[in-house]
Design goal:
Elements: H1 2-24, H2 30-40, H3 46-52, E1 63-70, E2 83-90, H4 93-107, H5 115-138, H6 142-161, E3 164-165, E4 168-169, H7 171-177, H8 193-207, H9 210-234, H10 248-257, H11 261-283, H12 291-298, H13 303-315, H14 330-341, H15 350-357, H16 369-373, H17 381-417, E5 435-439, E6 445-447, H18 449-457, E7 472-477
Length: 481
């Protein structure tokens, strides 16, 4: 009898040990998330289901994105074991919707004081999913890679490039292929901005060129933020005075007060992850080890300017205001990112960032402190050089924007007092600039799109430093004269 009791005690001790080991290796704190949802989640009423027209998705459904399965259903798994690497690549609209639901469910429950910690943890989980998918893709044969790209292209085409679906106009096609002033279909309930973001971030790198991906994200950022801010203004959740948005910190404070910081964080994260994934798939580069490293090297260039323009336009019924120079600088974007995410991507102060993250420990989300503490060590001198290049690029961009703002003021004065109009020209072809581009290898900016395309296609050296550009990207459109 004594031996039987001893065996039972030993058996339960072993079970308890392995259970604790699984929970201890729970970097994303999925177990407490599951416990919370199992206790508190209730399906929406049938009336709400009919109104939404969408199938009910529980918070603990499994999610399959590419080579990654996030198993939230099984009760016999624990911690990080729930994140499984699969042999085959699979994608579907339903799984992107599940991942989107998971992100907002994870972030928006529990103590609001720890919400930013949960945002970081959820973004780190998505960062890890990209990591697994890219590494698994790079290990495939050329034939398998082509098959994966074809699958991604097929779903991407079905979502965004089909004008009609089941005999009706596809609102997701109109989202990217209509002029906002002529067609407002993307505002309708038929379009889910978050789902557009998920599709573009995960599938775009398999189908679009780097320049094409930048163009699509530029459209997405404008419409994604405009719709949210328009709704928030109608509910008086955002200030109506443009002076309340004169700094990155003040914009972040306004968005946080209007409960728009969660969707802004997702937009920042996926807008950074998509071009990083594109670069890895094209050149075989390693995926950035940490979220901090990724944000430092792929922080969205245009997003803060787009956000300011939308907010300023809504404050004064479409009137255009000059963009404050700080919105165009690297330090401005870092301040904005830090305020929204409670994270600073600049490696020089990563240790401060890690200590600060301790103030945001979640009631069920512990975050990943080691990842923050190690971010400085993971950065080599190449990344530091890249940060210098980025700083120089943004100083030039800010200068160009200031020149354009000055030109606008001169044009307005000319309309009243007869001052001559000054036209900014491309320094190569001397045609009036419709949009300004940046050569990605060296960071020199100011060419028109046609000349930038020709320099990349013909492998001609930059007219300033003679380095051959690998690609280019648009940094902003010239306003109409």
């Amino acid at each position: 009898m004594i031996r039987l009791c001893s065996l039972r005690t030993l058996f339960f001790s072993v079970l308890l040990f392995f259970s604790h080991q699984g929970l201890a290796n729970d970097s994303y704190d999925l177990e407490r998330f599951r416990e919370y949802q199992k206790t508190n989640w209730k399906p929406p009423s049938k009336k709400k289901q009919r109104q939404s027209g969408q199938p009910v998705m529980g918070p603990l459904e499994n999610i399959r994105i590419g080579f990654v399965r996030l198993n939230l259903e099984s009760d016999d798994l624990f911690g990080d074991v729930r994140l499984k690497i699969c042999e085959n690549y699979e994608v579907s609209e339903e799984d992107f919707q599940r991942l989107l639901n998971f992100f907002f469910n994870y972030v928006n429950i529990g103590d609001p004081h720890y919400q930013k910690a949960r945002i970081l943890t959820a973004l780190r989980l998505i960062h890890r999913m990209f990591d697994i998918n890219i590494n698994a893709f790079m290990e495939q044969s050329p034939t398998e890679k082509e098959l994966i790209n074809t699958m991604a292209k097929s779903l991407f085409t079905q979502m965004f490039l089909s004008d009609n679906v089941n005999g009706r106009r596809n609102p997701y096609f109109l989202y990217f292929h209509s002029v906002p002033s002529e067609d407002q279909s993307y505002y309708h309930n038929g379009v889910n901005n978050g789902l557009v973001l998920m599709f573009l971030a995960f599938l775009g790198p398999h189908y679009l060129s780097r320049y094409g991906l930048s163009e699509w994200f530029s459209v997405l950022q404008r419409r994604y933020t405009r719709k949210s801010y328009d709704r928030a203004f109608s509910r008086e959740l955002l200030a109506g005075d443009v002076n309340e948005y004169n700094s990155p910190q003040s914009i972040a404070n306004q968005l946080t007060a209007a409960a728009l910081d969660t969707e802004t964080a997702l937009l920042i994260g996926l807008t950074a992850m998509a071009p990083a994934a594109s670069r890895c798939l094209d050149s075989g580069q390693r995926w950035p080890e940490t979220l901090e490293t990724l944000l430092m090297s792929h922080m969205p260039d245009e997003l803060l300017v787009i956000i300011y323009n939308n907010l300023a336009s809504l404050c004064h019924n479409g009137r255009i205001f000059p963009v404050p120079t700080v919105m165009c600088t690297l330090s401005g974007r870092q301040d904005f990112t830090h305020s929204i995410l409670a994270i600073n991507p600049e490696p020089a102060i990563s240790s401060a960032s890690s200590s600060e993250s301790l103030d945001y420990q979640s009631d069920y989300s512990l975050g990943s402190d080691n990842e923050v503490e190690d971010s400085g060590e993971a950065l080599d001198s190449g990344h530091q050089d890249q940060s210098i290049v980025i700083q120089q690029q943004n100083e030039l961009i800010a200068q160009l924007r200031q020149e354009i703002a000055n030109q606008h003021r001169a044009e307005e004065a000319g309309a009243v007092g007869g001052a001559p109009e000054k036209v900014i020209e491309c320094p190569v072809c001397f045609e009036p600039l419709q949009e300004i581009t940046l050569l990605e290898t060296c960071g020199h900016a100011g060419l028109c799109k046609a000349c930038a395309e020709r320099f990349v296609r013909e492998q001609r050296g930059c007219p300033v430093c003679r380095k051959e550009p690998e690609s280019f990207r648009k940094i902003f459109l010239m306003p109409p004269h």
